[in-house]
Design brief:
Blueprint: H1 2-20, H2 27-32, H3 39-50, H4 53-66, H5 72-95, H6 101-108, H7 111-143, H8 150-199, H9 202-211, H10 223-239, H11 244-251, H12 256-273, H13 275-287, H14 289-298, H15 303-311, H16 314-351, H17 357-380, H18 386-393, H19 395-400, H20 402-410, H21 416-438, H22 448-466
Length: 485
Amino acid sequence: MLLKLVVAYLVVSIGIGLFAAAKVHNARDYITAGRHLPMSVVLAMVFATWFGSETVLGNSGTFLQEGVSGLISDPLGAGVCLMLFGLFFARPLYRMNLLTLGDFFRQRYSRGIELVLSLCIVVSYLGWVGAQITALGLVFDLLSHGAIDKEAGMMIGAAVVLLYTLLGGMWSVAVTTFVQMIVIVAGLFYVTWIASDMAGGVSGVLEHAAAAGKFDLLSGAGARDILTWGAAFFTMALGSIPQQDVFQRVNSSGNERIAVWGTTLGGMAYIVFALVPVYLAYTAQLIDPVMTAEVSLDDTQKIMPALIMNHTSFVTQVIFFGALLSVIMSTASGTLLAPSVTFSENVLKGFFPAMTDQQFLWTSRLTVVVFTLIVTCYALNSNASIHEMVERAYRITLAGAFVPLVAGVFWKRANNPGGMLAICLGLGTWIGGEALIYMEVLSDIIEPQLYGLAASAAGMLLGVFFCARPAKEANPPAGAPRAQA
């Protein structure tokens, strides 16, 4: 019965998405929802940017194993990313009236930089979207008691998200996310209230966690721990800034004020509310320590669903799994659309400049299908946890794209040679470091993405001071012609 209700909820979500698809008349509607979205919808979408499977399942399992130190990258780093984007990047980028971040790199630098960084952005989404597909498979496996295995569940979940994202684009993402966020907030608060009551109250749960050392961060921490935490924080907080999904939500705002404060407040809300599923998962330690220990041996990501399935009423189970599916689908739909439109706009369209708007719209939809197939295959063949898949996703954009974006927005002297050197040195250092760690030439204490970031900054400085050329305007007029490579 529970599985049937979940399936019914999926059908309703598809229906809402298809209803929103009626608003799509051209490519700009598909990618930015016509830049008509109000504060409430933008806030919900920004909040949902990160509030996905890793927040509910990944982070809670990580906290049970590592304590608060496991939350450095997410939710802390992720929330800081959204606030930084809102306060510093949203206004100048919104004024440029672009479709994608790749458009910024083309207008500010060159077609070559647009192409390379757009491909980096697309690749970074493999882990992020793959984590959502993995979580959907996990949910179907649990709800069906193994009748639908994890792999089959992943394919079913991917197909559902694809269906309403394919036709409606950002309009479907916006409308379904707004509805799903209502379900998420109400559902998780209700379930947490029930579980907290069973565990002896909020104060009792927090005291138990403190006594177990879950809140100890610096106690006994060495230089290696601090370096690891710093790398995790900066990889998420900075590496996530040059991402299309965040930019796309900002760019869909009805005006500049909504773009800035919808993003900033969404980041604040994310950090606070992301602690709710962490707290909920810890109540399992008090309610059923035997079950928690047994499930931990298999997969800590299953602890919270197991708690709900074994110790709550049918109504509570319906509410929880409805909220969980809302969490995953709201994130999956947006992060599925972002790399697809980036590839269409900044890779394919550059090779076919005569493409009409309708041809571009259908090319974007075809790319959504292809990317869904690629990500599903990646998720099916990955052994990484949900938390690990997300944490690894942004190393490439931290090393290659962060410096060109920051310099391009805030430094008038940033130029094309500087951008190219920043990319080459940043990505080269990061890839070389990863290779040396894999071959066990270097210790895994080395965080190559941080060295890549430093090398990228050095490359930008070298290009600016030793290859001086007239800089392009940071904010060219909207609709400027495509630059030649």
